[in-house]
Design brief:
The complex is a heterodimer of chains A (350) and B (337). With 350 residues, chain A is α/β, with parallel strands linked by helices. Chain A has twelve helices and twelve strands. In chain A, the strands form three sheets. In chain A, strands 3-2-1-4-5-6-9 form a seven-stranded parallel sheet, with helices on both faces. In chain A, strands 10-8-12 form a three-stranded mixed sheet. In chain A, strands 7-11 form a two-stranded parallel ribbon.
Chain lengths: 350, 337
């Protein structure tokens, strides 16, 4: 990876940690075990932990569990070489024992790629449900376990009937069981409830994060999500197309904010609680596309086809994480887009 | 007033009717006329789509590149579309170069229960910044719940529209209202409809589709398409004008384009032959008509019997070899009395 890209990520980490690394002091000299450790979430956790080690002498170690270590080594060779990071190749469902010295677990194994949810629904559900059960069973034997952070999904909120308002952790939406679109959120709901059962009956210390949408380094532009398509089309000078009327509202969190929030939820989250993970600042897809066009200096157009009306809002409420954990967004949407474009210009070029 | 996109299948579905013998002149002349008429999308290629030219389903006179290059040179306003069936068309050998020739819209098709096979082609198309539609062929063979499930897959892969194809011309308007309506109510992307005229319902079914929420309608000038032909494009435009459905197409120029097809491209105007009607009734792909006719003559059996037998066996496009097999079995049964 180019030095300027590494420097960019270091600056991102510095920004979110600021001058108060002590908020994460409980991680000092501890061992974190991250399932899905080589994916987008795991990679950013690794970046932030390595930053804390380098700049603030945290002495934190990481075990990253993943299925494609070669891809991780290619994507982030500087992380793969770190002595404090151990890479383990395994499917989460095949884990039997965890190292006894593990203090914290971040369970992030699952693909959010909806193409896979549709094409391999049984495998996706099995990976989430059995994978979660496997990790929780293994965690039962850990003598020093301080906390498990289960990464769920904002999709567990299901269909929202009160369009226009941000989604709080107490919101309950419909989730039709007999639809292929419920494969991922249905499995995530099951996984959350399973965590609740282990917390209740076995007193495992578990908190849950419900991620919404992200944009930034280490994301893949081939994902079929609006912002990824906008940026990809802008960088390849293709027309940005919006099929709807451009009015759906979404929000996007920069990944350094994501990683910092996750570590804070891990150390300070209350067991049994679920927290929203995402930016509370909504933006219409039409406005988002215009911003991408503006910041990318593309010459092609933004075309809003208006083939159907869509006033859906998928934006998390920030009230709980702000009031209980003191978390705020550090990277606003404009900066998120500028940094993302800078990153992808370099990485796509390479 | 509703807006509807008209996608013109004349130079693709019509290729079936011409045993895939479209010439450069056919393509150039028709593309100029379609472009002048303001038709949104003009599909060009072998009847079975990109990469399909073969002994099994018919060899094209021109190769794909020549067809695309000719079309591109003669289209300025209209977008150039292609039909792609994964398996016939591969990404590396076919789709990749199609973009070099300026293709704008890729309609990635599968049998109506096999949308899974479209994922890579749709994704690749989107990665190239081009429009990708998902197409569910032979849609009468699956209930609406299954069609929605398959359409949702295509939507998740990045399809910007999902087209229901009545490949056998088997639908009545009530079927169209039911199925298109079911998809339009649940998908986030527009629904399209592609009619065949085996039961004389091509235009009526297209109207029903728009009533049910479809935003993309396929048609072919003079109905030039497989079997009994497609919904007649210029008639669709005229009827839609009466219904105050906006297509953006100049009717007079669409009529001019249809005249070109009639006078210079087609050997005969499509009509509902006995065989085509049976094709619609039996729910078998209209494009089989020529193959069925040949097999019937060769083995001395009734082509209608072949169609009904193919319908019982639920044979789909790409299984053309089954036609001869069925004809031989019917011949054998006939001999045994």
């Amino acid at each position: 990876m180019q030095k300027k890209l590494r420097d960019m990520i270091t600056a991102d980490c510095q920004e979110v940690v600021g001058s108060s690394p002590e908020a994460l002091d409980r991680l000092r000299n501890r061992l974190l075990y991250v399932t899905g450790g080589t994916g987008f979430v795991g990679t950013w956790i690794a970046e932030l932990v390595c930053y804390l080690n380098e700049r603030h002498d945290f002495g934190t170690r990481l075990i990253l569990l993943g299925r494609d270590l070669d891809a991780f080594r290619k994507k982030a060779p500087h992380l793969a070489e770190k002595p404090e990071i151990q890479l383990v190749s395994s499917d989460v469902r095949d884990v039997i024992d965890l190292p006894a010295e593990v203090d914290y677990i971040i369970h992030a194994a699952a693909t959010p790629d909806n193409r896979q949810h549709m094409s391999n629904p049984v495998a996706v559900m099995d990976s989430i449900t059995r994978g979660t059960a496997t990790i929780l069973d293994a965690a039962m034997n850990l003598p020093h376990l301080a906390k498990i952070l289960n990464i769920s999904s904002g999709q567990v909120y299901g269909r929202q009937f009160s369009a226009g308002s941000a989604i709080t952790e107490e919101t309950v939406g419909a989730l039709p069981c007999n639809s292929i679109t419920s494969v991922y959120p249905g499995a995530k709901r099951y996984a959350e409830t399973l965590c609740c059962a282990y917390w209740s009956s076995c007193k495992l210390p578990i908190v849950t994060a419900r991620p919404f949408a992200f944009m930034g380094p280490y994301q893949s532009l081939d994902k079929p999500w609006a912002i990824n398509n906008f940026i990809r089309d802008a960088l390849t000078d293709n027309t940005i197309r919006i099929v709807s009327d451009g009015m759906p509202v979404r929000s996007y969190m920069y990944p350094s904010d994501m990683a910092y929030w996750l570590l804070r939820m891990l150390v300070d989250g209350t067991s049994g609680m679920a927290y929203n993970l995402g930016s509370p600042y909504g933006i219409t897809l039409g406005d988002l596309a215009e911003k991408v066009k503006q910041y990318s200096s593309m010459v092609s157009d933004v075309v809003v086809k208006g083939m159907h009306e869509d006033n859906s809002v998928f934006v998390p409420d920030q009230g709980l994480v702000s009031s209980t954990l003191g978390l705020e967004i550090k990277v606003p949407i404009d900066e998120t887009l500028k940094r993302s474009l800078r990153w992808f210009r370099e990485t796509v070029k390479r | 007033m509703k807006n509807v996109i008209i996608s013109d299948a004349t130079l693709r579905d019509g290729s079936h009717a011409l045993s895939h013998q479209l010439t450069r002149e056919h393509i150039a002349q028709y593309c100029r006329a379609a472009d002048a008429a303001g038709i949104s999308i003009v599909e060009v290629g072998h009847g079975n789509g990109l990469g399909a030219s073969s002994l099994q389903v018919g060899l094209s006179l021109l190769d794909d590149r020549e067809m695309l290059q000719t079309a591109r040179e003669n289209l300025s306003r209209s977008r150039l579309g292609i039909h792609v069936i994964p398996g016939f068309a591969t990404i590396n050998n076919d789709l990749r170069y199609a973009f070099d020739y300026g293709v704008d819209v890729v309609r990635v098709a599968s049998h109506c229960t096999e949308a899974d096979i479209t994922e890579r082609h749709i994704s690749y198309t989107r990665e190239q910044g081009k429009e990708a539609y998902g197409v569910l062929m032979m849609s009468h063979m699956a209930p609406k719940e299954v069609l929605l499930d398959e359409a949702l897959k295509m939507q998740s892969y990045g399809a910007e529209a999902v087209i229901l194809m009545d490949s056998a011309g088997a639908y009545l308007p009530v079927d169209v209202l039911d199925r298109v309506g079911h998809l339009a109510a649940s998908l986030k992307v527009p629904v399209g409809f592609h009619a065949h005229n085996n039961l004389g319902m091509g235009v009526a079914n297209s109207v029903a589709a728009v009533e049910a929420g479809a935003r993309i309608i396929d048609g072919a000038s003079r109905g030039f398409g497989a079997g009994a032909g497609n919904a007649q494009l210029e008639v669709i435009v005229a009827v839609f004008e009466r219904l105050q459905i906006k297509t953006g197409i100049d009717l007079y120029k669409a009529l001019d384009a249809a005249d070109i097809v009639e006078k210079t491209i087609m050997a005969a105007i499509p009509y509902i032959s006995s065989v085509s009607l049976v094709s619609g009734l039996s729910g078998v792909f209209s494009g089989f008509a020529k193959h069925v006719g040949l097999a019937a003559r060769e083995y001395g059996v009734d082509p209608r019997d072949i169609f009904f037998e193919l319908g019982i066996r639920k044979v789909v496009g790409g299984q053309e070899d089954k036609i001869v097999e069925v004809a031989m079995e019917l011949q054998d049964r006939k001999r045994r009395g």
